[in-house]
């Protein structure tokens, strides 16, 4: 198991700075704090670490520049505020990194970019190239064009997908709390900090209260699911307070701060990480107990014979969810047949497919290489 010191020494970090932290109580960006984090990033990068920043703050800065007192509710108004605010955000990073002789690179991503395999691979090459050039990518959601249906909404999820994209060793989520507490510290002053846990421990999920603050969007829940997502590429997550002096440098020195969430499974293949990262599933395949069992425990392909019901509208190549008979979603995968064909072949053995459909695309409904456990 990696020690805090070894993790601190690790090479590739994604550092996420949340809205709750980066904004000066709704009065735009906290320039002094932002300067401090960026300077730490610059120093760590000059020492040879590869760092990608995922920075929130566009909406908050836009609200301040436009004189809006409250976070707009309508998506188009949020998007307009983000477009204005992103200018301030990137200007701030650019000028600080420039002082350290480093280039900042603006990378704005939508979920669509990562859902489309070719664009995903392009984003990966671009980020890798920027790191080779020793530029510092500053990533945010491309709020201006993201639609409600496919928004990340919070930057925790985006940061985790970036970790998968570049196979980061560490995800540091800086927020306004010292880490994960055993109860929401805003509601309970007695709450205790959890200093370490497993990224996909469901017991941790029970500790977090849903919270939709004035500025931040995800609360602690999205940070935990981000840690579980990041773990798929073997990435360790530390949730820590951005208000601690020299926080990034102290984490690099191996100091025991915040909550460390360790990956608890072997890293999955890059292609499977991409499948697991899809936020939209087009349909559901309800499995019988035998199929659910072999998929969960033996990593087998899904055959039509083990499917009892097909829900939704999907085409060959879409992402669908496999659901066990008790209603629990157990896996996601790229399906080899569209919904209509899947309905016709469900419950039948592979050798019957040709007789039912008049052709055979593949013997499996979802091949195990395209299937990932949740
Ligand atoms: N168990 C918990 N431990 C720590 N914080 C929690 C917990 N449950 C809920 N929270 C809330 O999550 C908030 C951080 O999330 P959020 O406001 O989205 O921050 P950010 O903008 O940095 O992503 C904290 O301010 C806290 O009120
Ligand atoms: N893209 C948005 C950030 C969304 C957001 O607030 O995320 P988070 O910091 O996770 O609460 C912005 O720059 O304002």
TrEMBL record:
Entry GO MF terms: ATP binding; glutamate 5-kinase activity; RNA binding
Protein name: Glutamate 5-kinase
Function as written in the Swiss-Prot or TrEMBL entry: Catalyzes the transfer of a phosphate group to glutamate to form L-glutamate 5-phosphate.
NCBIfam families for this protein: proB
Main location: cytoplasm
Keyword Cytoplasm part of the UniProt annotation: yes
Domain PUA: 283-366
Catalytic activity: L-glutamate + ATP = L-glutamyl 5-phosphate + ADP
Entry's localization field: Cytoplasm
Organism (species): Ectothiorhodosinus mongolicus
Enzyme Commission number: 2.7.2.11
Binding site for substrate: 56, 143, 155
GO CC, any one term: cytosol
Family as reported in the entry's similarity comment: Belongs to the glutamate 5-kinase family.
Keyword check for Transferase: yes
Annotated binding of ATP, by residue: 16, 175-176, 217-223
This protein's pathway: Amino-acid biosynthesis; L-proline biosynthesis; L-glutamate 5-semialdehyde from L-glutamate: step 1/2
Alphabetized UniProt keyword annotations: Amino-acid biosynthesis, ATP-binding, Cytoplasm, Kinase, Nucleotide-binding, Proline biosynthesis, Transferase
Gene Ontology biological process terms, A to Z: L-proline biosynthetic process
UniProt xrefs under Gene3D superfamilies: Acetylglutamate kinase-like, PUA domain
Upper classification of the organism: Bacteria, Pseudomonadati, Pseudomonadota, Gammaproteobacteria, Chromatiales
Enzyme class name: transferase
């Amino acid at each position: 198991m990696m020690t805090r010191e070894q993790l601190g020494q690790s090479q590739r970090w994604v550092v996420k700075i949340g809205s709750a932290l980066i904004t000066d109580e709704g009065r735009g960006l906290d320039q002094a704090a932002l300067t401090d984090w960026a300077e730490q990033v610059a120093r760590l990068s000059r020492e040879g670490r590869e760092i990608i920043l995922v920075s929130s703050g566009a909406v908050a800065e836009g609200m301040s520049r436009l004189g809006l007192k409250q976070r707009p509710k309508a998506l188009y108004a949020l998007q307009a505020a983000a477009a204005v605010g992103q200018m301030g955000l990137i200007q701030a990073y650019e000028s600080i990194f420039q002082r350290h002789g480093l280039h900042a690179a603006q990378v704005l991503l939508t979920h669509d970019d990562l859902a489309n395999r070719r664009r995903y691979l392009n984003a990966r090459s671009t980020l890798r190239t920027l790191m080779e050039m020793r530029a510092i990518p500053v990533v945010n959601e491309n709020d201006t064009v993201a639609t409600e249906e496919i928004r990340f909404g919070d930057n925790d999820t985006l940061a985790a997908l970036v970790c998968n994209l570049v196979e980061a060793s560490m995800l540091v989520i800086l927020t306004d709390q010292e880490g994960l507490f055993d109860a929401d510290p805003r509601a309970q002053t007695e709450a205790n900090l959890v200093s370490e846990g497993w990224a996909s421990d469901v017991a941790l999920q029970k500790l977090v209260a849903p919270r939709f603050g004035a500025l931040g969007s995800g609360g602690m829940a999205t940070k935990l699911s981000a840690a579980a997502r990041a773990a798929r590429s073997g990435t360790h997550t530390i949730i820590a307070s951005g208000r601690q002096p020299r926080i990034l440098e102290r984490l690099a020195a191996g100091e025991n701060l915040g909550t460390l969430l360790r990956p608890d499974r072997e890293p999955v293949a890059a292609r499977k990480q991409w499948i697991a990262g899809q936020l939209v599933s087009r349909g559901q395949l309800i499995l019988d107990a035998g199929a659910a069992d072999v998929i969960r425990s033996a990593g087998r392909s899904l055959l039509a014979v083990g499917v009892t019901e097909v829900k939704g509208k999907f085409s060959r190549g879409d992402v669908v969810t496999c659901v066990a008979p008790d209603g629990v979603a157990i896996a996601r995968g790229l399906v080899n047949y569209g919904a209509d064909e899947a309905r016709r072949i469900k419950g039948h053995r592979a050798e019957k497919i040709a007789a039912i459909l008049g052709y055979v695309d593949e013997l499996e409904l979802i091949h195990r290489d395209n299937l990932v456990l949740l």
